[in-house]
Amino acid sequence: MSDHQNTAEYREARRLEALARLQILDTPSEQAFDDLTGLAARWLDTPIALVSLVDDQRQWFKSRVGLAAEQTPRELAFCAHAIQAHELFEVPDAARDERFCDNPLVTGEPNIRFYAGMPIASPDGELVGTLCVIDRVPRELSEVQQDTLRRLARTAELQLQLRISLLESEQRATELEHQQALNQRLLDSITAGVVACNDTGELTLFNNTARLWHGTDVMKIPASEWGLYYDLYEPDGQTPLAIEAIPLLRAWRGEAVENTEISIAAVGQPLRQVLCSGGQLYPEHGGPGAAIVVMHDITEIRRASNLKSEFLATVSHELRTPLTAINGAIGLLRSGAIGNLPPTSERLLRIAQENSQRLGELINDLLDMEKLEAGQLDLQLKPQLLRPIVQNALEINQPYARRYQVSWQLESGAADPIVRVDERRLQQVLSNYLSNAAKFSHAGGLIQVQLLIEGDEVEVQVVDQGIGIAEEQQPLLFNKFIQLDNSNARQRGGTGLGLAICKELVERMDGQVGVRSREGAGSCFWFRLPLSRAVL
């Protein structure tokens, strides 16, 4: 006997052992497999679809659509050929295929002319059968149909994996009970609240943390009495949470629950703020179904965030008052209110004033970012002509142009689109773009501002011919507290918040921001806004 024969026999023996471990031959029909053959016949438009399992003597059909026979001899089975490969096996016209043209299943009933079978592997990787479709006329599957058959076959493999788990249940009964108890202890020991429900929406899991937060074991009391023990609120802790907005019910309905914040007020406990994430356990089933939600207590995080906001507001207020006085005093001195100053004094006062202005910018940026993150920065959006806003920004920021010895120019054109924006905040964005362009341009450079209408959007571009930005650094530009690792950039200063604030502001006006640049060849900072259909 050749080595090849020995290898083939060894592989077949392993395959048959894997099939035997499944203990699936000659078992009653199962809905999961019947659904697969039903879907295969419907989606691939064939009269026959089978889940076929091949042993040493026959192929037996675990599920069948359009075929009365429960099995056929292995030597006649198309599937016996299909399991020799790990890829889809397709026979467009069996009557013209020398392997099958004289097969009784082709010359007689069921008159097979077309066959396509995708091998099904057992949990340990052995090819034990196929999910196949059969037609009585020659044809070929499209790429989409082939992909569908592959996906359905993978689902059949998942069912075999599940079957192995179920078959071992008797032997592992004690082990599973122990594991369940261990899982429950684990769930009860974690500091996150975990709740789950079954397909009908009934609670099936409520761990110790969840019971503590709700003040009772909710699973042991009727739903009608839940309100006696706790109330659910919106994040503000005051607005009652609508029933349909309860995270577990949302997950049960199939909605995505991602970082959803709610407040829980249990009897005898302080208000607790929690962050919820979860979803359906079997979303592929469609419709309402078993779901799980994990809740994290963020009460202290929110309290710390509020304290930080209050601290920043207080500090900023306390800093602004003396800073305003300092700026005013320096301005008077530099304006000659007490007479001409020596050049050395003038130089020191200029440095002091510049640093005071930078400190004021930092305070304003910190406050704006804090308000944006807290959702407390209200935008007054209304339709407005864009070109006058841009022209005004150029005029307001003319001191930057003089300071860095650059000039800017608004591209001439008839286009004056209408956008729905907060004018003051859009001015803030433009000022940041223009000041950055001035800082990083060469003396004598020209900064061009362009308005380009593309479809239902307008793109505003601020283009300089300055030092440019390395490609690897560009994705970081709109992050908070980012200053590029560039000695020239550090000399020009900045809070590292300006562009992050621009991004937040533009996005809240339904727009986008971005940059195009090459190192040493200038930069183009842009933002896009949707055009408004309003008539002014």
Automatic annotation (TrEMBL):
Pfam families tied to this protein: GAF (PF01590), HATPase_c (PF02518), HisKA (PF00512)
User: Does the record bear Nucleotide-binding in its keywords?
Assistant: yes
Name the keywords, alphabetized: ATP-binding, Cell membrane, Kinase, Membrane, Nucleotide-binding, Phosphoprotein, Transferase, Two-component regulatory system
Q: What class of enzyme is it?
A: transferase
Residue stretches making up the Histidine kinase domain: 314-533
Reaction catalysis annotation: ATP + protein L-histidine = ADP + protein N-phospho-L-histidine
Protein name, UniProt field: histidine kinase
Q: Where in the cell is it found?
A: Cell membrane; Membrane raft
Task: Assign the protein's first listed, main location to one coarse class.
Answer: membrane
InterPro entries, A to Z: GAF, GAF-like_dom_sf, HATPase_C_sf, HATPase_dom, His_kinase_dom, HisK_dim/P_dom, HisK_dim/P_sf, PAS-like_dom_sf
Naming one, the record's GO cellular component terms include: membrane raft
The source's domain of life comes to Bacteria
Q: Which GO MF terms does the UniProt record name?
A: ATP binding; histidine phosphotransfer kinase activity; phosphorelay sensor kinase activity
Q: Which SUPFAM superfamilies match?
A: ATPase domain of HSP90 chaperone/DNA topoisomerase II/histidine kinase, GAF domain-like, Homodimeric domain of signal transducing histidine kinase, PYP-like sensor domain (PAS domain)
Note the coiled coil stretches, chain numbering. none
EC number(s) recorded for this UniProt protein: 2.7.13.3
> How does the record classify its membrane topology?
Multi-pass membrane protein
CDD domains named among the record's database cross-references = HATPase_EvgS-ArcB-TorS-like, HisKA
